[in-house]
Specification:
about 850 residues, alpha/beta, Rossmann fold, 3 domains, 9-stranded mixed β-sheet, 6-stranded parallel β-sheet, binds N-[(cyclohexylcarbonyl)carbamoyl]-beta-D-glucopyranosylamine, binds pyridoxal-5'-phosphate
Amino acid sequence: ATRKTAEAAPNGNGAAKPDPRLNDPDTLARQIVEKLTYSIGKHPEAARKYDWLRATTLAVRDRIIDHWFESADRIAASGEKQVCYLSMEFLIGRMLRDAISNLGLTEPIREALARYGVELDMVELLEPDAALGNGGLGRLAACFMESMASTGVPGFGYGIRYVHGFFRQEIADGAQVELPETWLVHGNPWEFERRDCSYEIGFGGKVVSLQEQGHPARQVWRPAERVLAVAFDTPMVGWRGEQVNTLRLWSAQALDPILLDAFNSGDHIGALVESNKAEAITRVLYPADSHQAGQELRLRQEYFFSSASLQDVIKRHLEKNESLSNLADKVAIQLNDTHPAVSVAELMRLLVDVHGFEWSAAWEITRATFSYTNHTLLPEALEHWPIHLFERLLPRQMQIIYAINADVIREASQDKGLDDAKIAAISLVDEGNGRRVRMGQLAFVGSHAVNGVSALHTELMKETVFHHLHELYPDRIENKTNGVTPRRWLMQANPDLTALITDAIGPGFLDNIEKIRDIDALADDSGFRERFAAVKRRNKERLADVVGERMATSVDPSAIFDIQVKRIHEYKRQFLNIIEAIALYDQIRTHPEQNWAPRVKIFAGKAAPSYAQAKQIIHLANDVARMINSDPSVRGLLKVVFIPNYNVSLAEIIMPAADLSEQISTAGLEASGTGNMKFALNGALTIGTLDGANVEMLEHVGEDNIFIFGLTAEQVAERRRETHSGRSIIEGQPLLREALDAISSGVFSPDEPSRYHSLVSNLYNNDWWMICADFKAYWDTQRRLDALWDRPDEWQAKAVHNTARMGWFSSDRSIREYARDIWKAGPRNGR
Ligand code: F58
Ligand code: PLP
């Protein structure tokens, strides 16, 4: 009934919708059975669960294709500028529910399937997550694809079709185990293989100088190795199906699938070597996190998808235009972090070597076409490739980078008078580090706009990593605060809240999420607050069921659901949260007379397989959970759970079920965060530091409705200048000291008492992430929240204010800002 409400809303501008006669349950039921019969070869009586998923998907897909063609035709006819979003990662999650909901088909399909005794919810749950991303960066790309389609920006996503996405996590004896992810085993009905859309990608070899009579010498790259990039297209459906954009993912194949000579001479393995080597390029997503994955295969992936995407952009441009000289008027290319930054050199190569442009004209086109988004300031995450590797794999692109660098350095020293130290800092080649190509510098100089992802992060970019480039090009850096799509993260993930808000203020917020602000006044209405709390309660029960099914643990939905879910990283400080849990455990036992608010601390997230500290944190969370959860003296006042295998689908269940959202990174380190926005939009209160987008959330929800604690980014920098030691703080705070002693002495790891010894001793010597420095402020703020939990009206009023005031954090707003300020493209849809 809920989704019916959401979809029954009047269509804002009455644009093209499918013929309503075709959306009735009868027609849909007939079409689904047709798919079952003629595409899958099954009678309804013989169909199994996966057959229903496939048949339903195919029936929905047919409708999308009509909209897809309409969108493509309309964009082609208007000659509008297109936005190409180049990203190594698109963490899309499941697609069926999103597509059905955006097309307004949820209720008729539910009814159509029910005629055969099949539940839509069951079918939706069978779909595997498209986990083609690591975390925030990849999920942002997915929200942006949806928002481009929903706001009417002609967007084209370009990425990699990994056969194995982000690994599946299991927990065995408390520790993370990584298993391969196999999303394609049942086939992927959403994608269309376009064998006619394929390009050759070269690697290695040499550059030759060709002298033709009467012309200056021309450089031609003769690669030693070539592979084929084949396009797989997936439609991206916007809200109400008004626009459908394309996500084009590249798959690597060998030019010769088998070396027949080798095969015929009996070398059956050798005959497949080439094909295996080619296919390896797109086989696996690197499970990196805030650490550069410095292997050759990674650079091959980056170049492979950059070159394929640019060749495709150029081919499509030349189908409609006479030359590439107006490329930047027709195409904007956004580089999602530096992973596609080699594109700057590759476009120059294509323009100069292949299409005969003069260097300076090519540079103008390149800079006008590209823009670059930075997502991290962590030095260990900044990409820099050894020159010898780059030169061996991409010799011509290396020459081009040297030439770009020479121009940049000339401008910096001759025109702007920068000294040698500053020039060394901006150079595209890091001379001090075994000679490396700095991809951030390449992306920066090759773009007309460079953006950070929150106001604070953007300011810190100017002061730190890009300090001298900012001095040289003071107008280039701008801010574009991240956002999240309210379709997936509110309407689909939280249908009950969507229905409640629709009842209260009407359906206008579905088309313009900023109208959700109209529920703000209802924070004072006790009836509304009660209904709001009842929705939260049902969502907590739903999560409790999932915890019960997956972990055979029960959690009580009347306790505070205090949740930290995100990649596991030292800067995100899950460790601080665990230490607080231990201190609380201790206090609950030593002061049973006190009125403790019951809490369930929920964790989920994956550690990079090579990140030992992060894996220890997962182990510790599980060890602590086992001990606390089995101790009767806690009387159910505290529980700790670590839910395995955090992914988009789990996030969709978790976000609506939180009372408290933990956004507690060391200030200055979290570029933005997007999980923080999803929680608050769904009515969680945030406990957080003044970091990333938390700063702007504070401005929007107001200081009474968010719980900010801890050192500011400036104070963190200052303290790091003064001392690195945590010793004096630990010694001065018995709660912290006792919690650390317990961890260190093996209270939680009796099977291996020294397991966490070094984790703790590190804190004494080097409190780099300010865990000790922020502990007291964090503890005190948690106790203020305990007290607030005792005043449920007040808590719920704050929760309503959070939902009401989060509309600005929609990715529709982010996309409109990019479109207006950076891309100069669209949107068609002014909602
Ligand atoms: C994240 N970066 C930021 N990187 O950490 C987060 O603050 C921000 O909200 C988000 O981007 C979107 O802007 C991030 O997720 C990665 O996953 C990289 C993938 C490739 C390897 C290195 C990490
Ligand atoms: N991973 C998944 C599966 C997500 O859904 C999200 C955000 O919702 C993230 C990672 C990013 O989380 P955070 O912004 O807290 O780092």
